[in-house]
Amino acid sequence: MTGTVIVNGRRYRIPAEPTVVFTVDGGDPDYFTGALERGLMPRLRRMLDEGGEFRRGASEMPSLTNPNNLSIVTGVSPAIHGIPGNYCRLENGELQLLNSPEFLRAPSIHAVLQQAGVLTLMVTTKDKLRLLLGNGGVPSVSVERAASTGLPEYGIDDLQALVGAPAPGIYDPEASHYAMRLALAVYRARPDLRLLYVSLTDRVQHAAAPGDPLADRFFAAFDTLLGEYLDEGFTVGITADHGMNAKHDHEGNPRVHYLGDVLAAAGVPFDEIVLPITDPYTRHHGALGSFAWIYLPAQARPLAHEVLAALPGIEEIWGREDSATLYENPVDRIGDLAVTASADTALGSHAHAHDLTGLHGHLRSHGGRHEQPVPIIVSRPPTGDHVERYRADTLRSRDLHALLLDDTAVTGPR
Ligand code: ZN
Ligand code: ZN
């Protein structure tokens, strides 16, 4: 099948060749540049030498998993797809994990292609993303549920048997690699698949900085699997949902402002602190990131602004309308104030509400501006309208599918 589809106002070429996008959760560009420099990613190196490109771009704000995975697969901002966090407060005041398709306001590129008869696949590591990414009839599986589910759409009933290995647990450093192996195994069973999306988990990135042995092992194993996809003839895109930074002092103590405690101590009335990093997997980060929403009465906002602006490491404080505009967020699902913190500072609600005993090491997290830079890597020379912005490092990760599936691209032998 050839031709194009239009998804959320953007045009995409129907891929003639198998195409895959890997979203490396927490995959700060420094992990890739460091691993390349130290010779740990020979297949990526060769891919770049043979016409691929590695540029930097930006993820969406807040720099969190759900908003960015959805932007990457829909090609549009959270204002349009409706998911500004992993967690939010709805207009009726209800606090809600944003894991369910009922909250989605835009279809994915994969859903539109699948409905046009092009076979697609979503593979996630954490099951929390699977329902969102599988919305619109996209066949989807997760590592977390691989032991208990099949993929009936493609005639597969035992995913573990297909991979040839039992699925690791969700906090296992190899869980992300299993997602890559799973997607490749499904492709080998169904080589008529044309667009795959594989979303990893940031368990390793939360625990290990670029150059740490755990991170090195992660990226070396990623590279080996990347090589298997390239050997199968895949066109490959690689990006991240966000970066990752250390949020602790030199002794390893978390550097955190608990905004509810701060406002209470200053006598500022407020209704609620909502931390959109909150998800079912808090062992990664203790629900501490560099972004917070505050719900509070209008008359309290000037004083809240003054108190918060005086804290070291607070970088941006915007009212609801401004933050909706600046961060391209849906105005009905964000707080009265949006607060961001510096690279080395995290934001919490109340000290007693965060359990940090389960962290895998010192606090490393994301959510703010400093985790917006992400790699945008393609396996072959990009073409079309996006190339100049790509080479100027001003593309968004949400542009990656448009870059790979540019409708002016000439397809042919690699
Ligand atoms: Zn993430
Ligand atoms: Zn994370």
Descriptive account of the structure:
- Helices cover 29% and strands 19% of the residues.
- The chain is of the alpha/beta class.
- The strands form 6 sheets. A 7-stranded mixed β-sheet has the order 4-19-10-3-9-7-8, sandwiched between helices. Strands 13-14-16-15 form a 4-stranded antiparallel β-sheet. It has a two-stranded antiparallel sheet with strand order 1-2.
- Mean pLDDT is 95; it is low at 410-414.
- One zinc ion (ZN) binds at residues 26, 65, 202, 206, 284-285, 366.
- One zinc ion binds next to loops.
Uncertain parts = 410-414
The share of residues in helices is 25-40%
Radius of gyration: 21 Å
Strand order of the largest sheet: 4-19-10-3-9-7-8
Give the overall shape. globular
Compute the average pLDDT: 95
Give a quick summary of the entry:
This protein has helices at residues 29-37, 42-49, 65-74, 78-81, 109-115, 130-133, 159-163, 175-189, 203-207, 213-231, 259-265, 301-309, 320-326, 387-391, 400-404, and strands spanning 4-7, 10-13, 19-24, 53-58, 87-89, 95-97, 120-124, 140-142, 195-199, 235-240, 245-246, 256-258, 272-274, 291-295, 314-319, 337-341, 346-348, 364-365, 373-378. The protein is an alpha/beta fold and 414 residues long.
Index terms:
414 residues; alpha/beta; 7-stranded mixed β-sheet; 15 helices; globular; binds zinc ion
